[in-house]
Each structure stands twice: as C-alpha cells, then as structure tokens.
Amino acid sequence: MDVDQMSNQTSWDEIVAEHSARVYRLAYRLTGNRHDAEDLTQDVFIRVFRSLDSYEPGNFNGWIHRITTNLFLDRVRRTSRIRMDGFTDGAEERLMGSEAGPDASLHDAGFDSDV
C-alpha cells in the first residue's frame, strides 16, 4: 500500500490499528519490558506520521520495522551516553563521602585508644 492509497482509502486510525500490534511485538522484543515497548510504539507512530511525505512506495511493513529498530537503537545510544556522562572527570570526588571507608575503619580499630 503506498502513501496515496493510505491517505485516500484509510484514515490514520486505521493505519495505527492495522500495524500497532506488529510494532508493539517488535518493540517488546527489543526493549524487554511492557512500559518501554509502549513508549517506543508511540514514538514509532509519531515518526511514521511525520515521515509519511518522505515515504517512497514499497514495503510499508518493512519501513515501519526499520523505524522501530532505528528508534530503539537511538534510545540505547542516548541511554549509554547519559550513563557514561555521570562518570566524567571529577565524578569520583563528587561521589566520595566524608566518612572513613571500611579499610580505614579496620586500620583505626587496630590502634589502642590510649595511643
């Protein structure tokens, strides 16, 4: 089905109804949990809606599959970058507490209190 056929013969709701289960199943396989799969599915249909003008006639299911996979990979990259940014230079000092660590406590416990 090409874009002209979709816009002339079906409504946006029908497109979502026809493809949402397939997109959700793929999103669930990629993310591994229901919440992230639902978010990814919603993002996929937002992207599809915004990109319909640039869609070149062909395999619509394949196009949606590729969008789903690419959005998932973008999320993974963004999440890893955010996690790694937390450990930039100086992060260790910001994370250190003011209390002595276990090694220092054990060492101090070995000293006589009279000394």
Description:
This protein has one domain: RNA polymerase sigma factor, region 2, helix turn helix motif (Rna Polymerase Sigma Factor, Chain: A), CATH 1.10.1740. By secondary structure, the protein is mostly helical. The protein is rod-shaped. The mean pLDDT is 79. Helix content is 73%, strand content 0%. It starts with a helix and ends in a 6-residue tail after the last helix. The chain contains 6 helices and no strands.
Overview in brief:
73% of the residues lie in helices and 0% in strands.
Number of strands: 0
Per CATH, which architecture?
Orthogonal Bundle
**What is the CATH third-level topology name?**
Rna Polymerase Sigma Factor, Chain: A
Largest sheet, if any? none
CATH superfamily assignment?
RNA polymerase sigma factor, region 2, helix turn helix motif
How many helices? The count is 6
Query: What is the overall shape?
Result: rod-shaped
**Elements, N to C (H/E):** HHHHHH
How many structural domains?
1
